[in-house]
Amino acid sequence: MEITTVQLEIPEDCNVILGQTHFIKTAEDLYEIIITTVPQALFGIAFSEASGPCLIRTEGNDSGLIDVCGKNLQAVGAGHLFCILLKNAFPINILNQVKNCAEVCRIFCATANPVDVITAESSQGKGVLGVIDGFSPRGIETSEDKAHRKEFLRKIGYKL
């Protein structure tokens, strides 16, 4: 078995959600979830089939983000994987709805950080073992860091 890593492309000002799913209607269901939850969001979705024609299915309302999602899944090469690229919204706005989608099995990450996808390949194909989301911790926050965190959350409207 060969273990490799693939770095996802995440365009500027975007977040990515990478997950595992199991059915061809996933792309359309995720489209409906995003467009009805955050109508102003720009997004792309790609889903890689793991049977039949084994195609990467795409949806979304931004052709550039759709293309990058497809390229990301092509680079990873695993079946039953989905990628959402989201602009003008954050994963927190849609994550519970995505997790509640009947086809979604798991979420590997929801982030704007750099992402390395760890894959294993057997004679059958590739699968995702996990992801490396961002960077390693550099220490424990100080009182100044805590104040900055609280100020930031209020600045972006997530706290009063």
**Beta-strand percentage range:** 35-45%
**C-alpha Rg, in Å?**
17 Å
The biggest sheet, with number of strands, parallel, antiparallel or mixed sense and barrel status, is:
5 strands, antiparallel
Shape: globular
Which spans of ≥5 residues are poorly predicted at pLDDT below 50?
A: none
- Give the structural class: alpha+beta
Give the total of beta strands. 8
Mean pLDDT: 96
Oligomer: single chain
| Strand/helix succession | EEHEEHEHEEEH
Distance between the termini: 50 Å
Strand order of the largest sheet: 4-3-5-2-6
Continuous helix count: 4
Describe the structure.
The chain has 4 helices and 8 strands, in the order E-E-H-E-E-H-E-H-E-E-E-H. By secondary structure, the protein is α+β, with helices and mostly antiparallel strands. It has a 5-stranded antiparallel sheet with strand order 4-3-5-2-6, with helices on both faces. A hairpin with a 4-residue loop joins strand 7 and strand 8. The longest helix is centred in the middle third of the chain and has 14 residues, at 63-76. The N and C termini lie far apart (50 Å).
Topology:
Elements: E1 2-7, E2 14-21, H1 26-37, E3 42-48, E4 56-60, H2 63-76, E5 81-87, H3 91-99, E6 104-111, E7 115-121, E8 126-133, H4 143-155
Antiparallel strand pairs: 1-7, 2-5, 2-6, 3-4, 3-5, 7-8
Helix pairs in contact: 1-3
